[in-house]
Predict the 3D structure of the following.
Amino acid sequence: MFKKVLVANRGEIACRIIRACKELGIQTVAIYNEIESTARHVKMADEAYMIGVNPLDTYLNAERIVDLALEVGAEAIHPGYGFLAENEHFARLCEEKGITFIGPHWKVIELMGDKARSKEIAKKVGLPTVPGSDGILKDEKEALHIAREIGFPVLLKASAGGGGRGIRICRNEEELLKNYELAYNEAQKAFGRGDLLLEKYIQNPKHIEFQVLGDKYGNVIHLGERDCSIQRRNQKLVEIAPSLLLTPEQREYYGSLVVKAAKEIGYYSAGTMEFVADENGNLYFIEMNTRIQVEHPVTEMITGVDIVKWQIRIAAGEPLRYKQEDIKFNGYSIECRINAEDPKKGFAPSVGTIERYYVPGGFGIRVEHAASRGFEVTPYYDSMIAKLIVWAPTWEVAVDRMRAALETYEITGVKTTIPLLINIMKDPDFRAGKFTTKYLEERPHLFDYPEHRDKEDFVAIIASAIASYHGL
């Protein structure tokens, strides 16, 4: 086992990794910049080093991070998610410098980061894929020919990268011809290559993903699926495990194919195979994320498997202690992302200082966060400040528990997604499992909630009302 690990990240995921390392008896090293010198992950780590002043490049400075690991005697680097987590050049640099990258091999990151090649692998092992081009499109003429064969609407998408960039929905031939160059140029600018794919556009889809875990000896298991359909601006907001869509038989079927695909590419560490599900419940593979996911806690809650610890153990050369038959799925778990955003203003980021911060607790409630009273929400990083996770033996109880936990979660000083999330938990359609990736945009009434009032405001209002009543 490693003696010291450098955590190349910040926020809640850095805190999560540091906690896992502490439980494994591993010393931890945090990195930070000038504006985060008092951040929670800095305080939690055994050692912490400021490696930059500019907050925009601190966690992207691959060479400096690896050099620091060597300087302080860290044998491994955990990248978390985002930043350098799926950067094959960073993983390769670690290998060249003799540092263990806690994740898959850089060649696998490179392979699965290419949507065209990952789709070919999926087809090879029998995973269903969305009908469309077999590889990179040559030009708009080929795109038009394929679109006529599979029928509109279709989706143009960049072969490299993600985050919704280089993607265009085309509902007819005119839109396809107009959007081809736009998508190509956007992909070229964002990812350094304009390669495009074309797929049938699945309308009103669900977003389903399977968690896999593999070691360096060819052992691979899956930990079931999550439903991540409830999103804003193509970013997940609520995640559920297991999904309400799949039967146990479907879970076993798709899970076996996911394991087969991971074995095909020699995958080790934690990873996620992502799918879209159509209105008939058919799943289609779209891509693989070669890192820990933000929503990994819901899978941990229903399986009892600590995914982050196993990432570390696998990187250190330990074999998996689980076989597929050992994995049992118990109850339901929901995760809500607590973002510093104003849902009523198009989820605009809300910056400022957190004035009051009260975290819910109790049976079946878990909070992953790096926030606290006095925490400064800046415009430099992702707006997520915490994740609220609940577990319950049934779906109905899980929803009720999440609603109650949200109602006792208190954050003042910045706008948050909490009021919207409370409305989602109350919504009959959500409770009935009637949601797709279009859920929020089709239900504007969910954004109808009163503005937050501090407790002092309510006290003042009541005092004023009493005073008026008595004529004082």
Remarks:
- The radius of gyration is 23 Å.
- The longest strand covers residues 220-232.
